[in-house]
Amino acid sequence: MKFYLVSDDETAASLIRSAILDRGLEFPAGNQCRLAGVPGLIRTLSQTAATESRQGAGAEQQSTILLVMPEDVERGLEAVGLIHSELPCRLLLIGSIEDSRVVLRAMRQGATEYLDQSELSSELNNALDRIDQRKTRAWTIGVWSACGGAGCSVVAANLACELAKKPGSCGLVDLKVEGGDLATLLNLKVTHTLADASRNVDGLDATVLRTCLVSHGSGVQLLSACTEYPSFAPVDPRGVQRALSLLGRQVDYLVLDLDRGLNPAAFTMAQSCDVLLCVMRPDFVSLRRTKLMLDWQADAGLDRGRIRLVVNRTGWSGEVSVAQIFEALQMKSAVDLPDETKAMLRAVNSGEPLQLTAPSAKFSRRVAELAKELKEAAGRRQA
Description:
alpha/beta; Rossmann fold; 16 helices; 45% helix
């Protein structure tokens, strides 16, 4: 789906561009021009269509041109008529609706819709809802813990590798903004990070995001947190949301390694997840902190039905049993991941996830079962 913007009003243009990009839709900066550039835009799009036709390219979705009406209404209507006569596209006009005669003339000239500029935000979002016909987005899985040392990053990395059965089908995002470990666990060299992607929100689009992604041999696409320590690189929450929206349109599954304890920013991200995996150790300290966190989340309005309990490193004498954890947390079920100390140490030290180096290990088999359940849940949503 391609968007083009024609506007002499920079304020309106900025709002329109942000609204499109915040939904994860592609909108390169080069797809914008002033009203005087309409003839050039028509030539460019006509040449592109002719080239694609000669090359036998399949028909793409209809392009959308958004045109902000200038103060000189006649000049704007002339541009509308020119676009309509030369290009087979969806044409949205943004302008004042005070004069109904102008609106009527614009529709007769070929406009698909006329949006009220005084209510631009709501009008544009409603129009984009009608245009954006993609019924599915990435199935998003948040991984978090109420205490340190539970193994969230290890679980997130191995789960992502299991979900990525074809190249680029799974995105993995390190949201531990004060220094995450996913790049180290996957033995990947990172050049640009989440902080870089969110630094210039207005310029963040699919092209910029691709420069921040690092491909792993498993097919996982990693968006890393800062790897330096101490790292307090500022991360704009709006930039993070846009990055996730953009990445969510490129992959089938999105795994988020959330900051421990769910700080306000991480809590906002958690609310958008389809499933939340709450990772804990089988000991009393972890159990206590997990219960406190679950109670706080319930008070904050987070749907507990989306939370799946993951008890990591089970199988030790003296541990709190899974049955006792069920009773204390009033959870119906949980995934228990057996402790694989030696194999896991080798995997962590070599930067090769256990899911890939030892797929028959008990831990790997349980993660594979969890991935299968998540895929089935995603399939039910799409159906």
